[in-house]
């Protein structure tokens, strides 16, 4: 369950101080009636609080770069909560919205919190505390957590220390075990010596017995003989005593040395636990300084995040908070005014910082001196002609009113809106927008490729929304943009302020392939329409592209302002529906989804066989994002738990970061869809073209691919993976005697993470032999379902020859034939296969890739190719336009196989056939 809180920055709901509350006085803040949270004792992170913060003028409060903590005093007035680990910015931080997933420890005591609030931190300063009423209802049925203080940063640190301690204990145990073995060996040696001594004593005893016997027999035994026997006996006893003494001395010395070594080891380990804060320019600098890790607190200055070494890798610990913070921080800085515009400033860092300026054609600029007729931008015109010294606790600020840069003493008071903090010297460490450039020289920066692209035109409060049809973009300026709101690349290659002013509420509507540009000649924002990116570049190369609309998605500098909101208009009880993952309302209109579920349940109520979801080609960036909700909802109404996924999670064009973004979407999809998801790799997994007109791109490593596509299957029941790093597998439904086989027909890709687009089809020899000797080895009466990304039947349109070896193996198996496998993509040799004794039967082969609905029946195998889940309009037989906000935005099947009647049922959800498709095992489509 979730609850919402709303705050206006500037209002205060705290009549009492924390000290007054702790002293036992009645603590009854005058809360806003809507700002309360209620939960049941012992609940965990499913209790979510949605928070929205606005300024007093009603505009959203910008949370960019902010860290949010939940702080509270439990109802027992004894234990406290301090948690900075569970905040989620579920929308762009500029909207002022976040979600907080309350930890279980927050609900350990029933009653009303003595105090509860969210603390918002920015730039190591306390921006706001957002108070609310927090009530925990008692749970009389079960007992749960024992109350305790919960401080998430300390818990993380303690866990790190605990792991270090565990490692140290293991090392100490090894040392002790070694010493025990050493002592055991010594005792063994002493026992050996003792046995030898006993033997000598026995000899001496026998000699005495001889003497006694002679005496008893009145034999001749002189005094001299008696003295010799006595001396011999004494000598042997002395030798034995010396051996024992020497052994004990040696053992004592070794034990004493071992104790010293152990004490030194423990002392050394303890001294390595460093509590000092070490500041570095960025995370890469920390990793470079300590490649094998180190104990202590390491802070990356550019982000303000704390890093620690855990399990042989550096981990981002989130924003670092000092033990005490000023209550009034730097507020109301003008967002987006000059983002990182000082690229190239030469700032030497020590106890004093220096910012150098350069002269170019009579003007003064902070940044690169343009001395070789090249364009080095991200600079801004200012009126200074000197070197500015930043002494300790001083700030370098830009005055937007006077267009000048000055040095001012640093205080915790709020700076005026017209002053933008560029750099702060805090005990010899540089903070602020220029921190990333503190160690760079102009020469070094000019030689860095790709660093000097023109910085974006940025305006305050720009909203970019997709229209309801999914094809248009609306660009809205909610606040008037003036000369102080824009920074642009001027025609002389120097960033400057424009005179452009845009009225409040101005909206530009961009059709598909439309551009919004800044025209340097007219000094205005204009709209253009070109059907191809290259054509635009050739015709309008002097313009600055702000946005390019490509099928309802924004590309360009302003793309980051596109609001990724779900289509939730007219949905009743929106918060409850979204929190439970319910599909959008239009799927329930006219009982569409209810009727589909009834069809599925009617089929499965009488069949003996298997039922599963099949979905392919989501291309998550061009996807409405509702198929996981639909599958999850249908699963709950039908009991179908298995999903087969045909691959192609990644978009077609973009960057490495775009690949990683789509992988994150895929991981989220898996989590919210069905209980069991079995996937194969597509030709876009994990590789991407830079653009539609460039045959270059980016490919991530095979290890990254395995981690994204297959690793989650390692712990699933009844699945057998081909091996670590292999993206092919089989899974058994033993009750229904059914084997599902997933193949990777794109494993010829180069395994190195190189900068290149990879699109090489084919299965290697190792996989083909695994298919023959392992995957297809089943008992009598077993049924087999095959899945791979692209079609393999030569009779299906668009099949490529590299997959022929896979098809030849399956055809020979289905018909109990012998076959020689040739033309293997990684091998010039061939191998023979004999399936004359095969026992199973292939019921169905599933694929995607073509983005169309198609089916073939060849050599006894029914092959079904399915429409893509992405809302592409690629199927010529499906003429209705696919748009976001309609039921045809998604496309997947619920497949049910009736073994008794030998019928395959396909119920389509979304675009494609509206009726149930039925096929018999001979490939005939039934009406």
From TrEMBL:
<dbReference type="Pfam" id="PF00149">
    <property type="entry name" value="Metallophos"/>
</dbReference>
<feature type="domain" description="Calcineurin-like phosphoesterase">
    <location>
        <begin position="612"/>
        <end position="852"/>
    </location>
</feature>
<protein>
    <submittedName>
        <fullName>BppU family phage baseplate upper protein</fullName>
    </submittedName>
</protein>
<dbReference type="InterPro" id="IPR029052">
    <property type="entry name" value="Metallo-depent_PP-like"/>
</dbReference>
<feature type="domain" description="BppU N-terminal">
    <location>
        <begin position="2"/>
        <end position="163"/>
    </location>
</feature>
<dbReference type="InterPro" id="IPR004843">
    <property type="entry name" value="Calcineurin-like_PHP"/>
</dbReference>
<dbReference type="Pfam" id="PF10651">
    <property type="entry name" value="BppU_N"/>
</dbReference>
<dbReference type="GO" id="GO:0016787">
    <property type="term" value="F:hydrolase activity"/>
</dbReference>
<dbReference type="InterPro" id="IPR018913">
    <property type="entry name" value="BppU_N"/>
</dbReference>
